[in-house]
Amino acid sequence: MHDAAGFVIWGSSGHGKVIADVLALRGERVVALVDNDPRAGPVVPGVPLLRGETGLRAWLDTPDGSGARRAAVAIGGGRGHDRRGIAALLRDLGLELPAMLHPTASLSPSAAAADASHVLANAVVAAGARIGPSCIVNNGAVVDHECMLSAGVHVAPGAVLCGCVEVGEDAMIGAGATVLPRIRVGRGAVVGAGATVTRDVPEGCTVVGSPARTVERRGGPQ
Questions:
Q1: Is 9 helix (H, G, I), strand (E, B) or coil?
Q2: N or C: which end of the chain has fewer CB within 10 A?
Q3: How many CB atoms lie within 10 A of CB 1?
């Protein structure tokens, strides 16, 4: 069992359930949930659900919340900018955001996962790879040798980044996509589910298909 103070999870929806499961498998406990959405319900039974920053600040001033030290941001999808913003807020409130590694994930001894990143069930992060802050390497995804993920990237379930791929800030690699070696995926780009990326993807572009083709650029479709 780790620190009895437990974790605050920001995000009480599907990804919140995933992170709660990871914490349970690690012998950790969830002490509070936070969500801005008034429609959200508690994804961990018996744990208080706080409404946004105001609710969290008030709870941290109570006896129950005063011992909280650690947190996780459970916002999935292509919302890297949101994940990074919430992570910054939680740090400002004095909470630590350690990297979250599922017990079945494989992280090479020569790889590194930054604070607030999540490497989930059966994911592989190979030799020399670098996972930036607030990234998600989702279930069964492969980040092969020497790949570099900037802050806020999401590699969705089953996606494969072959060796030496670079992915820019807040980009989204869709489920089952494959990015061939030495490709650069630009900041804020989206790689569609199942796509095969054979050449660089410019910043802000959405690509789909096999081989992947551009269907949208920031500012409107092409």
A1: strand
A2: N
A3: 7
Q: Does residue 176 come out as left (phi exceeding 0), alpha (psi in the -120 to 50 range) or beta?
A: left
pLDDT of residue 216: 81
Relative to beta strand 172-173, strand 154-155 is parallel
CA distance to 12, 40, 48, 53, per residue, from 37 (Å) = 9, 5, 15, 12
pLDDT in tens, 25-78: 999 999 999 999 988 889 999 999 999 999 999 999 999 888 889 999 999 999
Pick from 107, 148, 151: nearest CA to 130: 148
Task: Report the CATH superfamily, name and number, of domain 100-214.
Answer: Hexapeptide repeat proteins (2.160.10.10)
Give CA torsion, residues 177, 180, 184, 186, to 10 deg: -10
pTM, rounded to two decimals = 0.93
Closest CA to 171 of 192, 158, 189: 189
Instruction: Spell out the CATH class of 7-92.
Output: alpha beta
Say how many residues make up the chain: 222
